[in-house]
Amino acid sequence: MEISHLKPVFFFFFFGLFSLIASAQQKPVFTQYIFNNYLINPAISGIENYVDFKAGHRNQWTGLEGAPVTNYFSIHAPFGNGFLSGDATSFGGQDDNPMSRSFTRNYMAAEPHHGLGIYGLSDKTGPINRLDLNATYAYHLGLSNKLNLAVGVAVGVSQTSLNAEKVTLAEKTDPAVAASQNEKIRPDLSLGVWVYGPTYFFGLSAQQLVRQTIFASDGLNSSSQTVPHFYFTTGFKIIAAESIGIIPSLMVRKVSQSPTTVDVNIKTAFRDKLWIGASYRSKDAFCALAGFNISQLLNVGYSYDFTTSNLGDVSTGTHEIVLGILLNNRYRVTCPQRSW
Question: Which H/E stretch holds residue 11?
């Protein structure tokens, strides 16, 4: 396959990204995953006592033609009559707020309850487009006064396509482009476990467990298949002062046929209103993060990645923004209390 009318940088970038998508890292990376772990672990479904809606946009390697651009939305909520005196579809909440800062000191494990959710994702890299849509379910159980266990599953569909209009070919019958005419919807499956308490959490999850051919073409070998992605996440909360909380966290990501990557993060929250943070992603980037819990309805987070790989020579970094809306927030909290 020969591509013309493209800058040399994009020529190598496209082939590198196509190889990456065909045989290794196929899920987008999020700097603010700590702000929405639900995207990588379905066991998070329904962890808070409100309907949690988020929308995110990530513009990776800004200034590099054809670089990844990702958009997503997610929404999930708890269901169960005994969950904090009513589930997230209940109204009222005139009693004392059990989700206040003092609640951390007087923590009681969540009542057994269910969580349901849905998320959709669009990821575009050069001429390659990916669309995901998943429904999630989780069950939360208090194992002791300060220990909770949640298990979850996500089922959905995924579609990857190649936009032939964005490449000029020497051979019009090139099998890679012919594959774009055979694009199909594939099933998707993810599993997760989440253990959490008043000052800690850790989780294990696996995504893309149903192995599928990405492009149905005889011209592409078996390496053009989806591969599982595995995640381990953990973090803990330090109450440094009455108005300051510090949250170190870690994520280890393992993808078949790709090196293991590690994200190390620290987030500092002030009066549950403002937070700032920093992150390092191995062999990729240093990141700066900040966010505001504007009200009991709205919060927003922003991050900027300073690329440390060779791509930093041809890009101006990565921008990511996440908007959160707390619907039916019956206890009027301004920030997450169980997933922080």
Answer: helix 8-23
